[in-house]
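Field reference: sequence -> structure
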Amino acid sequence: MGIKFPWASNSVARVIEHTDAKTFDAFVREAVSDKVSLLATDEHTSYTNLWKDYNHDFVRHSAGQYVNGAVHTQTIDGFWSLLKRGIMGSFHKVSRKYLPLYVAEFEFRYNNRNNPDIFGAAIARC
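Structure field:
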């Protein structure tokens, strides 16, 4: 059994077909607790309805803003960076058909990055 570190943030990642507000809203509501103290995103217009149910704030990357007090997207940007480097450096090409499996693998790796028994955690799921 793996060790869970309370200070390590977890990511939930999925491949989505559309980047419209309805799709983003459904994904966020599925993945994020309504008890979260702050939901930080970038300025993508599909996030605009989240303020209704979340303490939502955002950074404006288009204006060169990457941090605004406690609001930043560095954690999720780091996750996507690891996924992209993994694909470019190890796998080289990923088909649309198998992309969800690669995303799930890197989600697991990221969420277990501080687990000293990551191998044990991986085979426990078999």
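Note: The longest strand covers residues 39-42.
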